[in-house]
């Protein structure tokens, strides 16, 4: 219901704040357009009136892959308890942007490193496993500047001589 409310607000009300960014890199061109809306309690369903939501940030992302020439578009809706003004809008848009780095990190831990499939018998064992996964992930990320982690992991599996430099101190 909240998502539907956010979509309706975005479709029918003028944005109070807006901004646009275009970035090129990693074989793609990405354009992000952010719009900010101040909300009052009357614009939300009854169940959300006491949640402290006072603003809505809508980010429309368009990606163009230069290699495959495929385009994609998506719209993300973010609600916040921060009132909008020019500076706060910019900070909220940046926070939404940085959130994806966290999601990428969790994707690497879950999909590439198989963290969700690991079983720990107690909290200490879980912390040790998490520490090893963090160390391995950080090493792979620092060593994979020009390739994906999955590509690097496959190369390391096939050629053990490539593993030794990862453990040397700089």
In short:
By secondary structure, the protein is an alpha+beta fold. It has helices spanning 2-12, 86-112, 123-143, 149-158; strands at 17-25, 28-38, 55-65, 71-80. The chain has a 4-stranded antiparallel β-sheet with strand order 1-2-3-4, with helices on both faces.
- Helicity, as a percent range: 40-55%
Q: Specify the number of helices.
A: 4
Q: Measured on Cα atoms, how large is the radius of gyration?
A: 21 Å
Flag low-confidence runs: none
Class by SSE composition: alpha+beta
Order of neighbouring strands in the sheet with most strands: 1-2-3-4
What would the principal axes of the Cα set say about the shape? extended
The strand count comes to 4
End-to-end distance, in Å?
53 Å
For the largest beta-sheet, the strand count, sense and barrel status come to: 4 strands, antiparallel
% residues in beta strands: 15-25%
């Amino acid at each position: 219901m909240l998502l539907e409310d956010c979509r309706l607000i975005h479709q029918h009300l003028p944005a109070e704040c807006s901004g646009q960014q275009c970035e090129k890199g990693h074989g793609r061109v990405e354009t992000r357009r952010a719009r900010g809306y101040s909300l009052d309690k009357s614009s939300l369903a009854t169940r959300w009136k006491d949640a402290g939501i006072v603003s809505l940030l809508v980010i429309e992302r368009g990606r163009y892959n230069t290699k495959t020439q495929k385009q994609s578009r998506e719209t993300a809706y973010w609600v916040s308890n921060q009132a909008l003004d020019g500076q706060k809008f910019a900070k909220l848009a940046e926070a939404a942007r940085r959130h994806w780095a966290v999601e990428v990190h969790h994707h690497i831990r879950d999909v590439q490193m198989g963290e969700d499939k690991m079983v720990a018998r107690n909290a200490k064992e879980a912390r040790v496993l998490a520490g090893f996964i963090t160390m391995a992930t950080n090493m792979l990320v620092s060593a994979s500047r020009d390739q994906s982690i999955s590509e690097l992991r496959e190369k390391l599996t096939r050629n053990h001589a490539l593993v030794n430099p990862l453990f040397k101190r700089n």
